[in-house]
Design goal:
Number of strands: 8
Radius of gyration: 19 Å
Distance between the termini: 15 Å
CATH class of the largest domain: Alpha Beta
Order of helices and strands: HHHEEHEEHEEHEHE
CATH superfamily of the largest domain: YebC, transcriptional regulation domain
Mean pLDDT: 88
CATH architecture of the largest domain: 2-Layer Sandwich
Low-confidence stretches: 7-15
CATH topology of the largest domain: Alpha-Beta Plaits
Number of helices: 7
Largest sheet: 4 strands, antiparallel
Length: about 240
């Protein structure tokens, strides 16, 4: 299996606290997508895709609508995406994606998490150069050859194209993500994406044991508890 199979899918959370964080993360993503373009679904394909993904993850319509309204100027929040890179126990590295309306607050929380396991944040690209930035989708289909030819005809060259027991997984450069879905949805009109992510994937992974593994798990959990943290990418085999 390639890196594509290791991507983490959003899932329906079982606890109220986890569900609230999922809703909050999607609300911020929707806000950013609406703010960067036209805050209308039919005029902003990136916004439309995120809203579709949010609905699939059972985010209520009122949360979606409020996020779009905020982007139109209703409400005082102004969120931005900030990425932090850090070094964990052993040879582990982490990339932490945050969505925040207060950078000073967020960086203090993220730095404190690293400090609690006696590790530190790095400067920009101190970690990221060892990761690939990819858009990944996976779906069930028996049209592997037709899909691959259609992608190539559209000028999209997959980074990875895998088929395992009828589950096709495709990774492309993020800039090709929207065009990739346009091609797929023409071939499979009601396509159901089992994976639909854009993220950072390590070129190589490491295995931790003993105290290093315990500290890594503690660090991951500390970061995951921060409300502003949207995604945590790392290079550890778990």
């Amino acid at each position: 299996m390639g890196r594509a199979y290791e991507v983490r899918k959003y899932s329906i959370q079982k606890t109220g606290a986890m569900k609230a964080k999922t809703y909050s993360t999607f609300a911020k993503e929707i806000y950013l997508a609406a703010k960067k373009g036209v805050p209308e679904l039919e005029s902003n394909i990136h916004l439309k895709r995120i809203v579709e993904k949010a609905k699939k993850n059972q985010v209520p319509n009122d949360i979606i609508n409020r996020a779009i309204d905020k982007a139109k100027g209703v409400g005082g929040e102004d969120y931005k995406e900030v990425i932090y890179e850090g070094f964990g126990p052993g040879a582990s590295t982490l990339i932490v994606k945050t969505l925040t309306d207060n950078v000073n607050r967020t960086v203090s929380f993220v730095r404190a998490a690293f400090n609690k396991v006696h590790k530190s944040l790095g400067v920009t690209n101190s970690v990221a150069f060892n990761y690939d930035h990819l858009a990944v989708v996976a779906f069930k289909s028996d049209k592997e050859e037709e899909i691959l030819l259609a992608l190539l005809d559209a000028g999209i060259e997959p980074v990875e194209f895998e088929n395992e027991d009828g589950l096709i997984t495709i990774s492309v450069k993020p800039a090709d993500s929207s065009n990739l879905k346009d091609v797929l949805e023409k071939i499979i009109p009601n396509i159901d994406y089992e994976i639909d992510e854009v993220g950072m994937y390590p070129k190589d992974k490491v295995t931790l044991e003993g105290e290093d593994l315990e500290l890594f798990n503690r660090l991951y959990n500390l970061l995951d508890e921060i409300e502003d943290v949207a995604e945590i990418y790392h290079n550890v085999n778990l």
